[in-house]
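In the design runs reported in the main text, the only information available to the sequence generator was the tokenized backbone. The following block is the verbatim input for one such run; it is reproduced so that readers can re-run the procedure and compare outputs position by position.
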């Protein structure tokens, strides 16, 4: 089975009314036409499943949700998503131009109303168990480590997909080596500091995360941790590796990945 993994998209609908924020976020608001390139790459690769790493939208509004889902419908391929922080709200606490959003529980209901699941789930993909873990606020739901241990004990091969990277010293060092000013309270799972030791080490062969908008690979023991760059090509602002897709073939051992760009 061939699985395509795609990083943050940050779709903003041309019909969304939040004008001041749109001006500040023009690099994302005007990026959506580049998704046609991603769709073309996916058609060439014809994966059986696409998994998005979160931040489907730049901030939640019903208009942005519906616009993003219309874009994803163009894929004509089954897809899943693990949620990102922007799927719920913008950085309202730090930016007074940010639009108001409903509370996170209401936002989850509104995604679910369009058939989009965002909680912890496992999906079996031709001998590989995909664990989609809900981490948008740098924490994971209560009971996640126990759930992951049970899921991984029942499966020989496991892959973890989660928006915010796991909190390991190797990942923290890598992020700061690329961008020394990143706040690790936000850019790793700072509120789940033991998840790697509790439920990943020795159990999960690969981890895929987004959130940073730059690519990377960090090996921690037998676990390959991949950072996926921005899934769209931003307008007027270059993010390293932007627009790449990552391909995983479950017939190959230890989840080696292939990059298309
Ligand atoms: Fe993002």
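Verbatim output:
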């Amino acid at each position: 089975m061939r699985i395509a993994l795609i990083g943050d998209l940050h779709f903003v609908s041309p019909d969304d009314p939040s004008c001041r924020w749109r001006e500040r976020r023009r690099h994302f608001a005007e990026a959506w036409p580049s998704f046609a390139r991603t769709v073309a790459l996916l058609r060439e690769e014809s994966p059986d499943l696409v998994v998005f790493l979160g931040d489907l939208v730049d901030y939640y509004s019903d208009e942005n949700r519906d616009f993003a889902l219309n874009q994803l419908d163009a894929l004509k391929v089954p897809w899943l998503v693990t949620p990102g922080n922007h799927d719920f709200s913008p950085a309202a606490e730090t930016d007074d131009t940010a639009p108001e959003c409903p509370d996170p529980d209401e936002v989850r209901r509104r995604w679910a109303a369009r058939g989009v699941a965002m909680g912890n789930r496992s999906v079996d993909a031709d001998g590989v168990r995909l664990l989609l873990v809900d981490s948008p606020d740098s924490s994971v739901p209560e009971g996640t480590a126990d759930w992951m241990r049970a899921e991984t004990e029942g499966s020989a091969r496991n892959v973890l997909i989660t928006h915010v990277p796991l909190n390991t010293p190797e990942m923290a060092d890598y992020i700061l080596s690329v961008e020394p000013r990143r706040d690790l309270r936000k850019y790793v799972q700072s509120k789940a500091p033991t998840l790697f030791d509790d439920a990943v080490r020795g159990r999960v062969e690969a981890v895929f995360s987004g959130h940073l908008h730059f690519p990377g690979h960090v090996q921690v023991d037998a676990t390959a941790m991949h950072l996926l760059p921005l899934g769209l090509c931003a307008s007027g602002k270059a993010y390293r590796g932007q627009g790449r897709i990552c391909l995983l073939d479950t017939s190959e051992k230890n989840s080696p990945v292939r990059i298309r760009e």
